[in-house]
Amino acid sequence: MKFKKIIILTLLVIGLAACQEEYEKELIPGSELAGEWFVETLTGGAVVVGHERVMTYTTAAADGNQIWFDDAGHIWPVKAKIDANAGDNSFAGTGDNIEAPVYSYDTLDVIRDENVDPIDSVNQNFEGYETITIMEGKIIADGGVSKTGVLVDSIYVKATFSDDPGTEYEITGHRRTGFVEDDY
User: Fold this and answer.
1) Which CATH code for domain 31-94+132-182?
2) Cβ atoms within 10 Å of 154's Cβ, excluding its own
3) What are the CA-CA distances from residue 26 to residues 17, 32, 35, 57, 59 (Å)?
4) How many Cα atoms sit within 13 Å of 145 on the Cβ side?
5) What does pTM read for this prediction?
6) pLDDT for 6-27, tens place per residue?
7) How far is CA 18 from the centre of its chain?
């Protein structure tokens, strides 16, 4: 009799545990634009930087209206907030490149003295940031192929930088799979 009670209790616990709701992955707006990408950078149709990693990720607002575009110092360096349209997987706009601050310098009139470091005779004034303008940025679902042939999303960006006026860059590539075999 005791054995039957244990079996019934065990089946009851298993039955109750099986009734839990299935976990549903909750996505924040703009998360489909987020990812790590292996890209080539071209200008005038010629590759100027080959297979480097860039990242796109949501801002703290998590509203899908802006994303960060960040190359982690591999291409320019660039890190800027860009306007996004999560509904059609696109982003475009001009953003301050926080990796490229602009300074002006004022020299101080200091009498030459061996005890004064020359660097202490210069004032550095923060003026703002260089900018990146992304004319066209889009994520294409299943539009790319990884190094090992896996179907992945692709990214296309057409951009200019304020510290290289007149030069248009195309940054194009595919989503990182996370597998070592696909890394460059």
Assistant:
1) 2.40.128.220
2) 19
3) 22, 12, 16, 16, 17
4) 3
5) 0.76
6) 888 887 777 666 666 777 777 7
7) 39
